[in-house]
Amino acid sequence: MNSNNINEINDYLFGQDYYNDSVFTYEISEECEETAKNEISKFGWDAVYSSWFDYLTNHCETPHQVCNFAHLFWLYGGQDHPIDNIYEFIGYLYYRLNLEPAKYEDLYNARTIMDSIANDLQEKAGFKKDIWLDDDYVPEKDPLIIQAVDEWRKKLG
Prior knowledge:
The protein is an all-alpha fold. It has helices at residues 6-14, 26-43, 45-59, 63-75, 86-96, 105-108, 110-125, 143-156. Helix 2 (26-43) packs across helix 3 and helix 5 (86-96) packs across helix 8 (143-156). The N and C termini lie far apart (37 Å).
């Protein structure tokens, strides 16, 4: 995709249906990954993340949409970069799943992707250490994530 408009790029990147292999083919996936990489290089991570977060909070309301976004976020390497508002970001994902990602695991691989994002972002930010080794840690029971979900509930109802 060739565009100088970050919103057009994001509409393309996150408008993909991660779950539809007949449309989101390997070739399209590779092209989208390259587009995301170029977008980050061109605009810088801070601007790209800000626009991705805006896309998430303005276009993703259903569990399907949120999980689709989460998988694409991961595919495009979002977890490899620092995020200042990680609890606001993670909280939105869990808010839209009503803190029940396991309920959507069979349909969208929700628990797996949400755990991956929550754990990697918290560890990368230095908020948690060796989180993957803690068998007792469950993101949806984390008080900071619950607090962030509650803030989204107050804000969006």
